[in-house]
Amino acid sequence: MKVLFIGGTGFISTAVSHMAIEQGMELYLLNRGIRSTEIPGAHQLTGDIHNSESMLNALKDLKFDVVVDWIAFTAEDIEHDIAVFSARTKQFVFISSASVYQKPPPDYIITESTPVENPYWEYSRNKIACEDLLMKAYDEEDFPVTIVRPSYTYNTYFPVAIGGFGCYTLADRMLKGNPIIVHGDGTSLWANTHAEDFAKGFLGLLGNEKAIGQTFHITSDEVVTWNQIYQTIADALGVEAKIVHIPSDFIIKVIPEMTGGLFGDKTWSAIFDNSKIKSFVPGFQATIPFSVGIRRTLEWFDADEKRKRIDDNVNREMDQILKAYAESLEIDYSAGG
Question: Domains in the chain, ordered, with CATH?
Fold first, then answer.
């Protein structure tokens, strides 16, 4: 099967790319060649997906069984995809997001039929607009689309609500005994999915004619609380987590930019019914528990000290929230306080 990944070297897609090669797929990667990640066995195409001339020069006359766009975020991106790939692929897979599901959720158990509506997060609304355009193209032009909605899918970063994305800042704070923030009382329910588990279900959809015109989420069936997530990371580091619980509405008053990630996603309990992906990909099952997956994440960081990047802005934001909350309660949350 001849497959094109637009992107293919990101936080989720790198693991999927490696597994696609292992399964014998003829994989092409189209990106700008900025990331240093190499996927042995993949064909590299260098071009800018946002520049028509650059992309067409990279693609030349190539056609594919499947095209997956990992990096489309706006309706404009999708309009471009439809124009370029309608005659180049038998299946087009759009990577959306599980954050598109209605917030607040109508039920804590989410299925693919749960309404999509997110008044809190522009990112999610853009993904919804992308989905709408693609399904319109499917209905009116037979554009062969499949929509996949990952939830929090991790591999080489910590899947946390507050503590920094793609950096080592949270672990550094824990190791130093500094306080960390857990939103709310930490008891809302969540599902973290390892990228390798996601790949198992995802790759089973590629080339699957029955998946055309369908939407799927692909997540772990393991359900944990946010307290358990942070405590599991601390356990893997061999330290005690100094957790401070702070209401989500207080957090976004201090840092309004966190509204999308919290009220648009992680404040609410979210348990995903994976019956649909299991019916389309028989045998699919997420098998990497979070306690195991997060140790793999730490091993990845430990393998190269350069990966342990500390984001000073993340530290400043966390300290700003902690200071404001401490002042509101007249409590000292400084290190050692």
Answer: 2-154+194-218 (3.40.50.720), 169-191+223-270+290-329 (3.90.25)
